[in-house]
Amino acid sequence: MQNAEPADVLDARFAAAKEASHRLARATTAEKDAALQSIADLLVERIGQVVTANAADLEAGRAAELGDGLLDRLKLDETRVRAIASAVVDVISLTDPVGETVSGRSLPSGVRIDQVRVPLGVVGAIYEARPNVTIDIAALALKSGNAVVLRGGSAAERTNAVLVQVLRDALDRVGLPADAVQTVDDFGRAGAQHLMRARDFVDVLIPRGSARLIQAVVTEATVPVIETGAGVVHMFLDASAREDWAVELVENAKVQRPSVCNALETLLVHRDAAERLLPPVLARLEASGVTVHADDRVRALHPSALPVTDEDWATEHMSLDISVGVVDSLDDALDHIRRYSTKHTESIVTNDLGNAERFLNEVDAAAVMVNASTRFTDGAEFGFGAEVGISTQKLHARGPMGLPQLTSTKWLVRGAGHVRA
Amino acid sequence: MQNAEPADVLDARFAAAKEASHRLARATTAEKDAALQSIADLLVERIGQVVTANAADLEAGRAAELGDGLLDRLKLDETRVRAIASAVVDVISLTDPVGETVSGRSLPSGVRIDQVRVPLGVVGAIYEARPNVTIDIAALALKSGNAVVLRGGSAAERTNAVLVQVLRDALDRVGLPADAVQTVDDFGRAGAQHLMRARDFVDVLIPRGSARLIQAVVTEATVPVIETGAGVVHMFLDASAREDWAVELVENAKVQRPSVCNALETLLVHRDAAERLLPPVLARLEASGVTVHADDRVRALHPSALPVTDEDWATEHMSLDISVGVVDSLDDALDHIRRYSTKHTESIVTNDLGNAERFLNEVDAAAVMVNASTRFTDGAEFGFGAEVGISTQKLHARGPMGLPQLTSTKWLVRGAGHVRA
Q1: Which residue from A97, A138, A330, B182 could staple onto A404, CB 3.0 to 4.6 Å apart?
Q2: Structural domain boundaries of chain B?
C-alpha cells in the first residue's frame, strides 16, 4: 500500500470514513449496540491473534530499549484483552446521546425550532502506546454515531493493526460499514500529519497522551482539536484547614494513582498552618514512598526534603514526586496557581467560607474543588459512565467528556409556508 | 508605537487583555450593564469624532477604488452611529449567561458537583470593513464577561481607532479595566497574524467576513476558531410542494436580503414538479429583479435563463442571482446538497411526510428546514436577542450564536474531606 501516493490513499480512506459516517449517523441505537457486542465477541475470539501481535510489538519495543513503564502500557495479555472486551460491553448500557432534543420552542410566527443532538461525523484520535485506546475510543465514537480515524503510535503498530481489523470485521458482521473505522498507522508520522490537516473529511481531532504529543497536535492541526490533558494539579492547605482532612486529601490525591492526570503535583500551604500541617502531611506522604521537593520554608521544617526547582513547579511528574511550598496568603496561592496551572483541577482545603468562595470563583480550571480529592475529576466519578478524555480547553467541552461531548447539534425548523417578515 | 518590536508590543497588549479578563469574569451584571450604557453614551458624545475619522477612511477607500458595496458597509453617518449606540443599549436587557448553573448533582459519596457558566476569557475578533462590528462584538463579549482583541481591517482603520478609544474610555469611566479592549489594527496584517497564534493569551478567535477571510483564519490560526459563515444555501421543491408556498418561500429566501448568509443561492426542483412550479417561481423572481442561472432542463422551460456553471453551484452570490436546477429525485437533491452545501441552512418544500423526515435527518447543516424560509436562521429570529455570528462548524456552537456561546463552563466540586475510594 505504501507504493501508492500516500496522500491519495489516505484521502480515499478519510473519504470512505466520511461516507460511512452518514450511515452511522442514521443507525439506530439497537444497531450500534449490536456492533459493540460484535466487537466484544470478536475480540475474545481473536485473543490469540492479538496477543501474538502484541508480543511482536513488545519484542521490538525491548530491542528499541523502551522504558519499563511504556512496555507495561503497551502489553496486552489474555486478561487485559478480556477486560477491554468487557469495557466495550459496558458502553452498550450507556444512553445514546444521538437524537436527544436539547432545546425547542415555537417562534412567535408559529415556526417550530428544535435543537437535536447529531454525531460529530468523523473523529480523529491520535494517541500513544496504549493499544486499549484503539478499542475504547472506537467503541465510544461508534455508540455516539461517529466514524473514526485512528493513529495509535508506532510502538503498538502490530497490535493496533489486529485491533482495527477486529473493529472493521465486527461492523461488517452486523451490516454496518467497516469503513467507519480507519487507521493511518501504516503511514507512520506522515499519516498522522495528513490526518491533522484533513479538514474536508475529519470533524474533530482528539489527542490523548503526553503533553508533547498534545502540543504537537494543537500546533500542527488545521482540523479542530479537543485538547485533553496534562494536569499540573495543585492543592492549597489554607490556614483553617482541618489536619485530618489535609492528611487524607493530600495522600489520596497524590498516592492513589500517581500516573494519571488528576493526581496531585504541587502542594501549597498557608504560612500560618505550615508548622501544624506540614509534619503530619509530609510524614504520611513519605510513609507512602513519595519524594518531596520543597522550598526553603518547607525544608526549614522538614530538612529531608529535596530542594524544589522552578522546573518542578511546572512539571506533571506522573510519579511519586511532589512539589511543596509555603505561601503567605490566599492571594499568593492564587498567583502561584495562575502561573503554573494547566487548568485541569485545583483544590483548596479550608474552613473559611469566604476563602472557599474566592477560590471557586477566581481559579480558572476545568474543575475547582473545596475539601475534596483532585482524583474526583473523572468521567466515571462524575457519573458519565465512560470517559473520552478530560478536556483542558474552554471550547466545546471542559472537564471529563462523556458521549454527549462526541456530538454536535442541528436545528430542525418546521414551518407551513412561513416567510420572514 | 511601530518603532518597538511588534511581537513584544502585541504580547503586552494580549497579556493586559488576559489580566483584565480576570476582572471582567468577576464583574457583576450591574457593573457590565453600566459599562454598556457608558459605551452607548460616549458613542453619542463623540459622534463628530467618529464621522470625521470615517470620512477620512471613506476618502482613502475611494482613492483606493474600493467598490460601492464595500464603501457603503464602511460608511458611518450620525444616524448609523446612533443605531449602533442603541444596539448596545439593547444588549443591557439580555440575560447575563455568566454564573448560570448548567447541571449539578450530588455524587453517591456526597460530593456535590455543579457545572456553571464562566466567560471564555479573551475573545479575538477578525472582521472586515463594517466598523459597527467593532462595537457590536465588544458589547456582546463584555456582557458575557470577556475581554476582546479586535482586528477590524485596514479600510476602517481610522474609524476603528476612534471606536476602540470610545470602548476603552467607557470602561474606565465605570471603573472597569480599559485594557479589556485591545486592537491590533495599527500593526496591519502582522498584527492579525500574531493574534492568530497567541495561544497563551487568547481563548477563541471569531472571524466574520468573506469566505476568503474565514478560510485564512482557519488555516493559519493555532488559537481555537469558531468558524462563522459562508452560506451556499439550497431550497428543494419536492414533487408535492404547494405552488403558493413555493413561490413565497423562494422569493422571501432569495430577495428579502440577498447580501446575507441565510439568503437562498440554489434552487433545486423535482422533475415531476418542474413544469408546474418553475414558471410561477421564476416569473416572481424575475419580477423582483433576480438573474436566473439555470441548467438545460430549466432552460427548456424558461429560455431566458443564463446557463449555470459548475462554479455557480459552489458560489455564495450575495446578490440578486440564483442557480436553478432540475433533479430526478430526493436522492439526487440530497447528493447535490451534500456536494455543494456549506452546512449553513438547507430547506425542503414538500407535503410528503417521509421525504420531509428524510431531509431533516439526512442533511448535515446547522439548520435544516421544512416549508420555511431559509431567512429564519438568525439569532434574533431564534429568540437569542443578539447574534455573535452563525457558526457553520460542529464544535462548541452550531447555528446562530447568542451570549451563552461566548461562555465556557467549569465544574465546582464541594466535599467535606472526601477522598476517592
Answers
A1: A97
A2: 6-227+400-414, 233-376
- Closest chain A C-alpha to B14 CA, distance in angstroms: 16
B414–A26 CB contact, under 8 Å: no
Q: In chain B, what residues touch A395 (CB-CB under 8 Å)?
A: 120, 203-204, 224, 226, 395-396, 408
**Closest CB to B368 among A248, A365, A410:** A410
CATH of A233-376, picked from 3.30.420.10, 3.50.50.60, 3.40.309.10, 3.20.20.140, is: 3.40.309.10
Q: Which residue of A has its CA nearest to B408?
A: A394
> In this complex, do A364 and B396 lie within 8 Å of one another by their Cβ atoms?
no
When pLDDT is averaged across residues B373-393 and rounded to a whole number, the result is 91
Q: Which residues of chain B are within 8 Å of residue A375 when distances are taken between CB atoms?
A: 419-420
Does the structural domain A6-94+110-227+400-413 have CATH classification 3.20.20.70? Answer: no
Residue A374's nearest CA partner among A284, A209, A255, A276 is: A255
| Contacts of A97-104 spanning 24+ positions with Cβ under 8 A | A97/A144, A97/A403, A97/A404, A97/A406, A97/A407, A98/A25, A98/A29, A98/A144, A98/A145, A98/A407, A100/A404, A102/A409
DSSP string, A152-217: --GGGHHHHHHHHHHHHHHHHHTTS-GGGEEE-GGGHHHHHHHHHT-TTT--EEEEES-HHHHHHH
pLDDT tens, residue by residue, B134-160: 999 999 999 999 999 999 988 999 999
**Contact between A121 and A18 (Cβ < 8 Å):** yes
What DSSP string describes A271-288? HHHHHHHHHHHHHHHHHT
Beta-carbon separation of A376 and B414 below 8 A: no
Residue A377 to residue B411, Cβ atoms within 8 A = yes
B402: region left, alpha or beta (phi > 0 left; psi from -120 to 50 alpha): beta
Contact A409 B398 (CB under 8 A): yes
Q: Which CATH class is domain B6-227+400-414?
A: alpha beta
Chosen for mutation from A123, A218, A401, A418 (greatest number of chain B CBs closer than 10 Å) is A418
Is residue B133 helix, strand or coil? helix
**Residue B74 Cα distances to A97, B60, B157, angstroms:** 45, 11, 10
Cα–Cα dist A37/A298, whole Å:
54
Q: Identify residue B224 by its one-letter amino acid code.
A: P
pLDDT per position as a tens digit, A159-192: 999 999 999 999 999 999 999 999 999 999 999 9
Using a CB-CB cut-off of 8 Å, the residues of chain A touching B347 are: 413
H-helix or E-strand containing A390?
A: strand A389-391
User: Residues A353-379: pLDDT tens digits?
Assistant: 999 999 999 999 999 999 999 999 999
Contact at CB, A396 and B395, closer than 8 angstroms: yes
For residue A375, which of A242, A269, A279, A231 has the smallest C-alpha distance? Answer: A231
The reply to whether B6-227+400-414 and B233-376 are identical in fold is no
The reply to whether residue B382 touches residue A107, judged by beta carbons under 8 angstroms, is yes
**pLDDT tens digits along B43-67:** 999 999 999 999 999 999 999 999 8
CA distance readout (Å), A212 to A73, B212, B286? 18, 32, 59
Q: Identify all chain B residues contacting A376, using CB atoms and an 8 Å cutoff.
A: 107, 111, 113, 413, 415, 418, 420
Is A225–B226 a contact, with Cβ atoms under 8 angstroms apart? no
Q: Chain B closest CA to A45's CA: distance in Å?
A: 34
- Location of C-alpha cell 496477543: A51
Confidence of residue B4 (pLDDT cuts 50, 70, 90): low
